[in-house]
TrEMBL record:
Residues 75-89 have a biased composition (Gly residues). Residues 248-506 form the Malonyl-CoA decarboxylase C-terminal domain. It holds the Pfam family MCD. Residues 28-44 have a biased composition (Low complexity). Residues 1-97 are annotated as: Disordered. It comes from the Bacteria. This is Malonyl-CoA decarboxylase. One of its GO terms (biological process) is fatty acid biosynthetic process. One of its GO terms (molecular function) is malonyl-CoA decarboxylase activity. It comes from Pandoraea eparura. Residues 188-245 form the Malonyl-CoA decarboxylase N-terminal domain.
Length: 532
């Protein structure tokens, strides 16, 4: 996931919505020129044709951006992309930030300010002004100063709102609520009444408070281990987000080539699955035989929360390269039979744990069926991000057990592998380029069998081990087909020996498939079942 939301954009409503990654807006002139260059570069026949795309209504955990990157994204100071398709630094590691030093007097003043925000009534104008001042100060601070401010916040809020213990008299039930939260069975009513929750509600009531809180929670998650006192506040905020970002409040909008340039820039930056390499690549993904949808919150109209990219094809897609081929001819929408969801991206690290991806796909399927009544087949072309890590962890004995006697015997005949090969050695062999067709066929056979086992049988606490499988199977999809050499990019090879998987969405079978998953037997297509 890439970085960069901006505060100023929140006050400027926009009619269209989705995108994929946080972006730093490079400025209107840059956006306009980039959009214009994209138009000129795609004037050749085929996918890049200049005809406008109709604005029709017809899914991964990404690395967290660094605190410094978010500072740039808030104020539009970082115009370039910050790393690879995930949006973080290319090495995946954020630089450590040491907290700045606050004087004792500054710390004392900040504690008084925070205590006022914690203890006063929600209607107290002085406390609301104090919250506004803190929000402005925090957003404008350097990364090390933000960390210092967070440390004081953690210390002040760690006492479960005790600075405002007498706040029960403010009329919103805060004092009783705090006690209810600490007591067994206090439940949501107690949580909503705590001083910390009132503190967070105070920020939410400010004009730019909700986007600030989303970014603030991302910082809390990043520094929670170093500042244990943040845990309770971060958990309270996460609980509030589950209400404030309820799917019933979200708006589904299409994004097209005619959408604002600032939104298109964010689409490029937020893309978390298959990096958008150029404006021509983006235009291809928004062409007339494609669709893109995103969920937006009414108070964050320029910030997509999650988006999905859809391709219409005549048959279930087997590799991502053909889907993203800019030179491929446009599909005839009168004849297509399949809608393929080939990229789904969450965009806001601060909304981790707030689930609305399953609702997104179901809403998009409903929209597509309205626009294309003959369309009946819906599937994904998804990565298998945890496969290589799982395979590398297998000992020789565990690998032989997963393969079974028959496949292990076939593997033993391969001269380039030791008879007691470990999972790590198997992974290297699967990624190697074999010259003989017999070896290539064996690699494919064993690779697909291992992927099928990983997706269908490997679990953690009763749930599929692979995060993408957990998402789609939890939506009621079924594992339909393993695709060998479906993603030959470096990322694809690193994640899953270049394999991808189709999850099939049959609207009438979603509930039954979900029950199968609950019963410990995820729904599998015939081709996958034969591999087990």
């Amino acid at each position: 996931m890439k970085d960069e939301p901006i505060m100023s954009a929140m006050s400027d409503p926009v009619s269209l919505s989705p995108s994929l990654m946080d972006a730093t807006m490079a400025g209107a002139s840059t956006s306009a020129s980039a959009s214009a260059s994209a138009s000129s570069s795609s004037s050749s026949p085929g996918r890049g044709a200049p005809e406008s795309v109709a604005d029709v209504s017809a899914p991964v955990p990404s690395p967290k951006p660094s605190l410094g990157a978010r500072l740039g994204q808030w104020f539009g100071r970082g115009a370039g992309k910050s790393g690879g398709p995930g949006g973080g630094p290319k090495d995946g590691k954020d630089a450590k930030v040491a907290p700045a030093t606050l004087s004792p007097r500054a710390q004392s003043a900040l504690r008084r300010q925070l205590t006022q925000c914690l203890s006063a009534r929600l209607t107290d104008s002085a406390a609301n002004d104090a919250a506004r001042d803190f929000m402005t100060r925090y957003a404008a601070a350097s990364p090390d100063m933000q960390l210092a401010l967070l440390a004081v916040v953690a210390e002040t809020c760690a006492s479960d709102g005790n600075p405002g213990a007498e706040a029960g008299k403010d009329g919103d039930g805060a004092g009783a609520g705090a006690s209810a939260k600490r007591a067994p069975g206090g439940g949501l009513a107690g949580a909503l009444g705590s001083a910390r929750v009132r503190f967070l509600k105070r920020f939410n009531a400010l004009p730019d408070g909700l986007p600030f809180l989303v970014r603030w929670r991302a910082d809390m998650l990043e520094h929670r281990a170093a500042l244990p006192g943040l845990a309770a506040l971060e958990e309270d905020l996460g609980s509030l987000f589950s209400t404030w970002f309820d799917v019933g409040l979200l708006e589904l909008h299409p994004i097209t080539w005619d959408s604002p340039a600032s939104l298109l820039e964010k689409l490029m930056r937020y893309e978390a699955v298959h990096e958008i390499s150029s404006w021509a690549d983006l235009r291809n993904r928004l062409d007339s035989d494609r669709r893109c949808y995103a969920f937006f919150h009414p108070r964050m109209p320029r910030e997509p929360l999650i988006f999905v990219e859809v391709a219409f094809v005549p048959e279930m897609a087997a590799d991502v390269h053909s889907l993203l081929d800019e030179k491929a001819p446009l599909e005839d929408l009168r004849r297509v039979r399949w809608a393929i969801f080939y990229s789904i991206s969450n965009t806001q690290p601060g909304l981790r744990g707030v689930s609305f991806g399953n609702f997104l796909l179901k809403r998009v399927i409903d929209e597509l069926q309205v626009d294309f009544p003959k369309l009946r087949n819906f599937a994904t072309l998804s990565p298998i991000p945890g496969f290589n890590d799982w395979l590398k962890s297998l000992s020789a004995q565990a690998l032989a057990q997963v393969l079974g006697p028959k496949r292990a015997k076939l593997l033993a005949q391969e001269a380039s592998l030791a008879s007691d090969a470990s999972g790590a050695q198997m992974m290297m062999w699967l990624q190697s380029s074999a010259e003989r067709k017999a070896v290539q066929a064996l690699q494919r056979s064993l690779g697909e069998a291992l992927a099928a086992h990983y997706l269908a049988r490997e679990t953690v606490r009763g749930q599929p081990r692979d995060p993408v499988a957990r998402f789609h199977l939890g939506n009621g999809a079924r594992v339909e087909r393993i695709n060998w050499h479906a993603d030959l990019s470096k990322k694809g090879a690193k994640q899953s020996c270049a394999m991808m998987v189709n999850y099939l969405y049959e609207p009438d079978e979603l509930d039954a498939n979900l029950q199968r998953l609950i019963d410990g037997e995820p729904a599998l297509g015939r081709a996958v079942a034969r591999l087990l």
